[in-house]
Amino acid sequence: MIRFLSIVPLCLGLGACMAPATVEQPSRAATAAAPMLPPMKTFRSLPAARPSVSNNELARDIIDLAFKLESGAPLTHFTRVEGPVSVRLAGQTSVSLSMELDKLLTRLRREAGINIKRVTSGDTPANITIEAVPHAQIRRHLPAAACFVAPNVSSLAEFGRAKRSPRTDWRQLQSRQRLAIFIPADAPPQEMRDCLHEELAQALGPLNDLYRLPDSVFNDDNIHTVLTGYDMLVLRAIYAPELRTGMTQAQVAQRLPNILKRLNPGGRSEGAHFRPDTPRNWIDAIHGALGPGISPTTRRDHAQRAVTIAAAEGWQDHRRAYAHYALARVTQYQDPDYSLSHYLAAQRYYAKTPDTGLHRAQVAQHLAAYALHNGQAQAALDLIDPHLSVVRQHENAALLSTLLLLRAEALDLKGLTAEARLVRLDSLGWARYGFGSDAAVRAKAQEIATLNPLNRGNGRL
Length: 461
Hints:
50% helix, alpha/beta, Collagenase (Catalytic Domain), six-stranded mixed β-sheet, Serine Threonine Protein Phosphatase 5, Tetratricopeptide repeat
């Protein structure tokens, strides 16, 4: 129901984490970018790959997603938006947000089978209103939220008047007839799109997030930013004609086997992982490590506790990896070598878990930054190149541009300046989508350029 801010800075590598080295002249990236940046690149929306998942496991996931809130509080009955679903944009909208909504609605109709359409201001009131507002206004209501969805309101002003009343309490929701999604109008295009995917999916269906899901936006780790094939299958099941608002958990559970037999025939023979539930103390430790307003020492303590709990649980999956990843992120400034050891541990555990290609790409950017900082150009390229296609597939422009900027610096370090120039130009087009403003794009290019030994301390170009 809420997409949280990324509290800990991404801090790619040692150039951003240690005392900065003196750069006597501007980097090639900054010099080239200063006059004009290339046009923004965008992704062509393609259907997500169908997941390989056991129907027994999927049924368990759907029940947990539909009958619990993120807090763990149970819900007494099933809800969804009944009948044709109408969606409207309001507030400080942009061409980019409008295009992303149209692409998402097309996917929801095609991949999830939901009868959903966009309406204009002249039509009857919409089931779901997506209001674009300045992020500062969202923070006034929920300080840690990037965006969120609320029931029984159609504007942020209306939510402000009703936010402490039963009207906006998901636990007391009887039916979903009117909902509002609040998205930051001043965010980069990718962040607006990410909010749109996650919050519209939760307005339509699951109100819970499950850390045990590796291939889903219904997971608070924020690794996936656009709806996956798994997510579309979950939504298709939730909108199956056999289900309706008001059903009990037992009634939904009774109908799911036949629904999934029809929607996911391969799932009848697929082996089930049945990962154990995620204990609340691990979730609290992760939130403590990455949440707002926490000192570096306390962050480290929370992250270390998450690693300890994961080990005690005997996990060998992506949650064990994510605990190491969190510990690596929160120790980059204070202890780069220690941080590196936990990035390597995260990568080992991700490698053991299916459907974690995007997770491994997230770790690879940090490992490549370490390699580049140490002058190991080929090692950096070897870390980056295997992940470029999966990052494109998952439409993560911020991560793609970061990997390409790292790749350009590694090519320059090898003396391949012409190839590096082309890669850098490509990266900046994606960076405009992923990071937004020209200033943010140039800052990211400069940050990564300082990792290159050619740009540190000796004034070389």
